[in-house]
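Appendix B, record 7
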Amino acid sequence: MKFKYLEYPRQPSLAFPDKDRTFRPALEVTVKHQARSLKLICIVDSGADMCAFPAKVGEFLGLEIKAGKSEKLKGIEGTSSRVYYHELALEVGGYQFECPIGFGEGIKFPVLGQDGFFDKFEVTFNYLKKEISLKPF
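Structure tokens (predicted):
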């Protein structure tokens, strides 16, 4: 399965003052719980230990967020956020699998990380082609 990187606005940068757009390895994922499902754009993040979604995604799906196993996550900026794990079905490019997802108020956008995503796929990033390839194990 191949997916094109998505283009996003870029924050002003001293290193790249003329670049106002950037490309990220992001793809559409359907997350399912009971009779509800939701399509999301998720960032594929090889530096993330696990998959994490904003709490409002879990609430929309009908989860009782705080009923899940709890843990504090620390992000790249050093700030921590409490997440609550729930095992949900995800679908990417027609391939469905179960995935533990941490839902938290401090999570700003959905991220697919090592545990739950990279352990299911061989992932290849090709920045020159602006493409991400996934091959299920």
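Remarks on this record: The chain has one domain: 2-7+25-136. The longest strand covers residues 80-92.
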